[in-house]
């Protein structure tokens, strides 16, 4: 591997359909930069999944949606190795407290009351 490739992060992006494609990115690239790059260089074999705008492409890493300003470097992704992320089309990100709601459901805690 050349020295130049070591300073890049290899992302394998997976669509909901299961199709995958690998891209090289800089640690300074943000989730929004990646979405724009993928949109501008949409793979031929992903034609059926083509979206209307890069603004609705969202990255999911380790089960969490990445906000547009998060960089790959901030995630401390390894250089020279492949990192897998999911790429989905979604207008908005989930509310930050929705994760807390799921955690309450798992632990059995509840915020409702019983009327007798």
TrEMBL record:
Pfam families noted in UniProt: Rad60-SLD_2
Membrane-topology descriptor: Lipid-anchor
Occurrences of domain Ubiquitin-like (ranges): 9-87
Keywords annotated in UniProt: Cell membrane, Lipoprotein, Membrane, Methylation, Palmitate, Prenylation
Subcellular location: Cell membrane
Record flagged with keyword Cell membrane: yes
Gene3D superfamilies, A to Z: Phosphatidylinositol 3-kinase Catalytic Subunit, Chain A, domain 1
Record's GO cellular component terms: plasma membrane
Major localisation: membrane
InterPro entries hit by this protein: MUB, Ubiquitin-like_dom, Ubiquitin-like_domsf, UBL3-like, UBL3-like_ubiquitin_dom, UBL3_Ubl_met
UniProt entry tagged with the keyword Transcription: no
Protein name: Ubiquitin-like protein
Organism: Athene cunicularia (Burrowing owl)
Gene that encodes the chain: UBL3
């Amino acid at each position: 591997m050349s020295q130049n490739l070591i300073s890049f992060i290899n992302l394998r992006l997976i669509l909901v359909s299961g199709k995958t494609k690998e891209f090289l990115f800089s640690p300074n690239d943000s989730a929004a930069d990646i979405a724009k790059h993928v949109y501008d260089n949409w793979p031929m074999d992903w034609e059926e999944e083509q979206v209307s705008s890069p603004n609705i492409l969202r990255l999911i890493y380790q089960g969490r949606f990445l906000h547009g300003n998060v960089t790959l470097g901030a995630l401390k992704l390894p250089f020279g190795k492949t990192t897998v992320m999911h790429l989905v089309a979604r207008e908005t990100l989930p509310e930050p407290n929705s994760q807390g709601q799921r955690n309450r459901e798992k632990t059995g805690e509840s915020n409702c009351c019983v009327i007798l």
